[in-house]
Structures are given as C-alpha cells and as structure tokens.
Amino acid sequence: MIGTALLLLAAQPLPPASPPAALLTAAPSRFAPPTDRPMVYRVTTRRLARDGTMASYALVYDLQWSRAGRGVRLVAILRGIESDAAPDVVRAVTAMLHPLVDQPISYLIASDGSAITLVDPDALWQRVLGRAQDMGAAATRGEAKQLAGLLAALPPAEREKLATADVRALVAAANPAIEEDAPGLSVEQKGVLRTVTKSERATIKAGAGGAEPIGIDTTWTIDTTTGLVMSERRRTWIAAAHPGERKLVEERIRTLAAGE
Predict the structure, then answer these.
(1) Of 46, 100, 150, 200, which has the highest C-beta tally within 10 A?
(2) 117 within 8 A of 108, measured Cβ to Cβ
C-alpha cells in the first residue's frame, strides 16, 4: 500500500514519528488477523494547503488475510481516492495512483506480526515508476515533474519502506511508533481494546534557514485479540499567532473495519 506515501511525497514533508528506542511492548504480543472475512482500511490525510485551507485525501483499501505457512499473507487492493483538493492537484495525484487502483498487492507477515515483506516489489515499482516517468514527461506543472523525479531516485530500501508503511501502521507489533517507555506515552486497557496515546515535540525547517517547533499528538486503538490497529489519529501542530495557541497543519486518520 504505497498510496499514502505518494501523497506525502507530493507535499512538503513533515517529520515522521520518532524511531523506536525500545521493544514494542505497548503493542499486544498476539497477532491473529481474521482470515474468514474481508476488511476495509481507510487512510485519510488532511494537510494545510498553500491557500490556508485544509486539503483532504482519502484512500480506501480492500483487505483479505490468509494463512501462509507459519505466517500470514495480506492482499490489499486500492479501491480509489477521494479528495477535496484543487482539481489540478487531484489530477496529478490520481494519475500517479492509477496503476495501483484495482491491482492486488501482496505482503507476507511474520507469525508474530513483527516483520512485513512486500511480495514481488520489482513488478510493483515497475508499474509505478513507468507511470511516474510518463506523467513527468507530459507534465506542465513543476510539482508533477518533481514527484516523478523523487520516485525515480528512491533507492530499493526506501521503496520497500514506503510500500510497507501503511501495513506497518496497521499491524501493532510492526508499528515503529508504538514503543515502550517513550516520553509522553500512556496506555489504557478497556476490555479487548488498548488505547495508546503519545505526544511528541520536533522542529521543521522554516524560512531563512531557521527552525520552527511543532507538536505531534497520536492516538492508537488496538484490538488485542487480533493485534491490529483499528484506528489511528495523528495531528501535527505549529504555534499560532497568539501566545499559547496552536494551529493544525496536518491530520492523518486510519480506520479499519469489517468489509461487506
């Protein structure tokens, strides 16, 4: 599932969640996704646009889990993209994602959920890069050419990281942001659901070589019977004009539900 990664490449990057510094014990040790029914995975990104409004992109995936030896196979199909962004931006992003729509992408996941491998990555990236190169050659906007160039320049390790990012966010044991003893992290258990919250502080590049502080608040809801992240909400803030106030610059919401 690389749709979200392509959306982020198309925008001015914000810093990711901090890398893990310890074992992922905030996540449940059990990994048992349902193999008897499909699921729907929705990833919505709202980002501050240049005109000051929040542009929204939503990617919808159909998921099917199955046993594969001692591990699990996940087949994900991108159903489509929804957006309220400017029409020219939507066209550029949709064109990049078009090779992936309705195409099954397979992943192999370790029995404990700790490791995720993309199946046949060369074929996937051949489709994506072919489309990116065509789009870049035909593009009149600098953003489209820049995105095509970024994709073409990615080394294999970074491609693999991008292609598995949404799945790692979905499997609690593989999610690098849910870490033990992280500053600002709290865990609450209610029945089979575990809620993990974390607040972080970081900086981003500002004008004239300066740096601007930001805050990142994330909440995960984990089903401890399956080891899956049923929902995630990650909000990124900057300081507003008035002291003590802050402004939302990005919000990412992931939801997982039973399919039809």
Answers:
(1) 100
(2) yes
